[in-house]
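Please complete every field before forwarding. Incomplete forms are returned to the sender.

SECTION A: IDENTIFIERS
Entry label: holo-235
Bound molecule: pyridoxal-5'-phosphate
Molecule representation: SMILES string

SECTION B: INPUTS
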Amino acid sequence: MTSIAGNLQAVRQRIRSAAAACGRSPEDIHLLAVSKTWPAACVAEAADAGQVAFGENYAQEGADKVDALADRSLEWHFIGPLQSNKTRLVASRFDWVHSIDRLKIAARLSEQRDPRLPVLNLCVQVNVSGELSKSGVSPEALPELARGIAALPNLRLRGLMCIPEPTEDSALLRERFAVLRRLMASLNADGFGLDTLSMGMSHDIEPAIAEGATIVRVGTAIFGARPRAGDPQEN
Ligand SMILES: *Cc1c(COP(=O)(O)O)cnc(C)c1O
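SECTION C: PREDICTED COMPLEX
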């Protein structure tokens, strides 16, 4: 077995244990393999080991990998900061975008999504760490942004995403993830049918699963330490 295949098995086992520890079904937690900075060959290796969903942070790099692996039935999630001049690349190739924090970007994706393709699934990135983070919409501004997105064609608002500030404090992480869970519950009480909480990375999938994560985004624990900077925080 290759090391990527072995790492994937270990991560899937962590997900099963974390789900069992809080009485959740492991089928409700989807593993997104974050392949940013890694070549298409590494994605192919993970795909050979049964992995289907992959996450990319950089539009051009991600688009190149989508094209290189077009003969496999993979699912592609864009999870990085997205500038206006890169929306077309993403709208034409990806299945999901997790990092929406401005209506303008969602509107461009909506316009540029080919209506013959399946709808593009979106998550709004929420800043759950206050001044400690720069990306993501504030919890106060979330309802208005969510209403704006829900009105756009060719898209489907699926849920919320967060990246808490880096910390070893797992109680603090759980608090941050709980904020996202409550925000989704409150939007759903207002009639949104959201089903996705994208939260938890290599070092914190356990507290994220305990607070209801439905997608965990895991890079390092699957592919190893990244060959160049590809930090999940701000860029
Ligand atoms: C890089 C990245 C991840 C994966 O982080 P790891 O610590 O390598 O698991 C998850 N989410 C986002 C948004 C990222 O940019």
